[in-house]
Known about the structure:
Elements: E1 4-8, E2 12-13, H1 20-38, E3 42-50, H2 54-63, H3 67-84, E4 91-94, H4 98-113, E5 117-127, E6 132-134, E7 139-140, E8 143-144, E9 152-161, H5 167-176, E10 181-182, H6 184-195, E11 203-204, E12 206-208, E13 217-218, E14 221-226, H7 228-233, H8 235-239, H9 248-253, E15 256-260, H10 264-278, E16 285-289, E17 292-294, E18 297-298, H11 309-316, H12 318-328, E19 335-337, H13 339-368, H14 382-403, H15 407-428, H16 430-433, H17 440-461, H18 466-475
Parallel strand pairs: 1-3, 1-15, 2-3, 3-4, 10-16, 15-16, 17-19
Antiparallel strand pairs: 5-6, 5-9, 7-8, 9-11, 12-14, 13-14, 17-18
Bound molecules: 5'-O-[(L-methionyl)-sulphamoyl]adenosine.
Amino acid sequence: MSRAYYVTTPIYYVNAEPHIGHAYTYCVADSLRRWHALHGEEAWLVTGTDEHGEKIAEAAGARGVAPKAFADEISGMFRAAWEEVGLGVDRFVRTTDPDHVRNVQAILQQVYDAGWIEKRDYEGLYCVGCERFLTERDLEDGKCRDHDRAPEPRSESNYFFLMSREFGWLRSLFEERPDFVRPERYRNEALAMLRDESGLGDLSISRPKSRLAWGIELPFDRDYVCYVWFDALISYLTGAGYPDDPRFAARWASAEHLIAKDILKPHAIFWPIMLKAIGLPPPHHVSVHGYWNVEGRKMSKSLGNVLSPLEMRDRYGFEAFRYAVLREMSFGLDADLRQAALVERINADLANNLGNLVSRTLNLVDKLCGGEVPEAEGAEDDDARTLGDARRAVQTRTRDAMEGLRPHDALAEIVAFASQVNRYLDAQAPWKAVKEPGGEPRARTALFHACQCIATLAALLAAFLPDTAASIAGRLGAPDLLRGTVFGADGFAVASVPPGARVTKGTPLFPRLEVAGG
Ligand code: MSP
C-alpha cells in the first residue's frame, strides 16, 4: 500500500466567519496534500469546526439561538466557503459529530482510569476569549494580552490533566526531534515555555455544567463538560479515522499539523502529552506560520478590515490570490496583505512571466510548427544543456523547499525557472531563426525544449495552482501529464510532451489586473 501523508488545519471556532488567515493555512494544507498525492502517496487532509465551549455559547446567546443551531449555520458556512474556492477535504470534522464525541469520551475515560486526571479546587483569572485561566504573563494592565479584556476571577473544583510531570519527557522529545515544531523560532518559543514552568502547570480539563453546559460530558462525572481544547485537539485523531480505520496508524505516523503562532502552546505542549497519555506517538510535525495583517494593520472586526476568501476570489480569481499569499508570506513570519502589492505580484509573476511564456511558446508552435509540438533536431547546444540543468535543479530545489515547509521558496524557484525559459526563448529567438538560412531546425529545437520546460512547470505548479496547471497541460495537448503519479521515486517529474501533440493557444492564463482605484 502506498505511503500515507496526513495534513491538518486548525479546526475553526464557529464564532467568526472564514477569513484570509484561515484561508492561508488551508491553501498551504491543500498544496501539501496535492504535492504528496502527485508523489504517489495516499494524502489525507482534515479540517473542520470547533463548536463547543463558552465562547461559542456566548456568541449563540447573543444571537438568541441554541448553540447547536448556531454551530450548524457557521460550520456550514466554512464548509461551503472552502468548497466554493476549490479547497478539498477528506474529512471535515465537527466537534459535535457523534464519532468525535465518542472518541473524546472514550479517551477521557481511558486517561482517567490510567491515573492521569485528578480533581482539585482552583482559583484564578479566567479569560473567555482564550477559554482558559490566565497567568501573570498573559496579562497587560490587568487585561488579557490577546483579547484586550479583563479576565474574571473564578474559583471552582475542576478535573486536572496531570501534564506537568511530563515536561522533562517533552523536553527530551524536542531534543530528539529538532524539527518536531518548526520553523525553529517556534521550537525555541515552546522550549522557553517549558523552561518557565510558572506559565504552565497541570491543565484544567473540565468546566462545571452549572456554568457551562455546552460541551462534551465527562464520562466519569456528569456534572462537568470537557474543556474545549482537550476536545478540539482530539479532532485530529477523529479525522484520521481513530480508532478503527485500518489506515489510522499509517496516517498518524506522518501527521503534520499546520497552525498559526497563537495556538502554539496547546499544540506543542498539551497535545504531545495528551497523546502520551492515550498511548500514541506525537505527530510528525507541528508547523507554525505567522499572522496576516491587512494594509499594515491587525485584521479585526472592530477595524472592519477582515477579508474573506470569497471576496478575494471575486476580486482576483482564487488561484491568483492563492499564489500571491503563498508567495508573499515566508512561512513562519508575519506578513502584510496589501492589495497593491498583491496585484503587482500577480501581474509580474503570473501574467507577465508564466502566462506570457505559455502564450508566446504556443503561438510560436502554432505559427512555425503547424500547431504540433516539434522534435529536437541535431546535437544539444550549450544553451539547451544549461536549460536542462536548470530544469533538473528547479525540481530538486522545489522538493527541498516543500520538505522544509517553505512554500514561498518553492514558488519563487518555480517562477525563477519560468523566467529562465523566457530568457532562453529570447536568446534562441525562433521567430528570427526561421528566417535565417538553415535556421528552421534550430527554431524547432528551441520550441521543443520550451514545451518540455512548460510541461515541467505544469507538474511543479499542480500542487499550488491546480486549475492553471491542468489548463497548461491541456493547451500543450498533453492532458495526461498530471494524471496519477507525476513525480518518480527520484523526485523528478516523469512526464514530457510527446512531439506531435497538438497545442491550443487559448486565452491568456492570467489577464493583467488593474491596481484598485488606479
Ligand atoms: N479552534 C481553535 C483551534 C483548535 S485546533 C485543534 C482556534 N480557532 S480560530 O478559528 O480562532 O483560529 C484558527 C486559526 O486561524 C488559528 O491558527 C489562528 O491563529 C488562525 N488565525 C486567526 N487569525 C489569523 C491571521 N490574521 N493570520 C493568520 N492566521 C490567523 O484557534
